[in-house]
Amino acid sequence: MLTLPCLSMMRTQAAAAIEVDRICSLTVSAADSGYAGDFDEMTILVSLYRVAGVDTAGRYTPEAPFSKMDFTDIGSSTTADDWQKLAGQAEECLKEQKEDAPVEVKTVEVKKSEGEASATGTFSNLKTGMYLVVPKETENAKKTVRYSFTPYLTALPASEYAAAGTGSDEWDYNPTIGLKAEGEELTGSLVIRKTLENYNASLGAMTCVFQVEGHDENGVLAYSNVVGLTLTGAGDANAQTAKLTGIPAGLTVTVTEVYAGGSYEVKGDAVQKTVILSDGLVGDGEPASVSFTNSYDGGNRGGYGVTNHFESDGKNGWTWENPTPPVVEENE
Model pTM? Predict the structure, then answer.
């Protein structure tokens, strides 16, 4: 039986007496989380705190660190929201714990083992009672999504009838519970660096323009931007960079120098690809980057410009913002 990640009702009066000295186990499963594809490739750390003991009739008495909690009104009318509020109270008690009297905690890793159908983790040698389940916020293996989890209370033993008011009222001393998760799409940054091998000062400042596009795994355009850089000298001391932020993490982007500047030409590849890394989560924390080098071609055509930016007003119209400069850093 897979128990929902909260106790919607408690109807212990219809069940047999609880064997309070029985040793229990609790398995946490990611099978029905809605994100099993990601969770099967992750390791999720789950902490477990014993909040209250229980008597043979199903009445709960809070443990010392959680003495502020009141379980006297638990019954058939207790709602999921009520249980969530109780879980919040338990979390507050954890924050108030004293250093000289720490709350006992057990931890387990929820992950997919060889031969298993889904990611699971099992707590063993547990006493009967009420427990607070606290999964740790975790990123997926590709570092493209961050999952946060709702802490909740669960009881040992459990039963179908005690949890939902229907089904068997036989106590299960080794239940399986699920995870309630929400995913947040992560983003990263892209740095475009431009250097000139040589520079014709008589032509004045030169502007080059880059088109940046990224398609998802289905080939759908997921990101598009255009950015310009203006240079006034050659060498590393006069290099310019533009940093684009808020790009979906894990996306492969293609950066194309669509305009190299009047009387200048691209040295090397005018088209480069890179994968966007989650800000601060991958590698050494540096963003994805590409570098381009241009050289004066001997001509006398000057080239300078600004980057126009258009924003949709949501009513089939567009707002023109001009100019909208990128984040430009010198001497990179």
Answer: 0.78
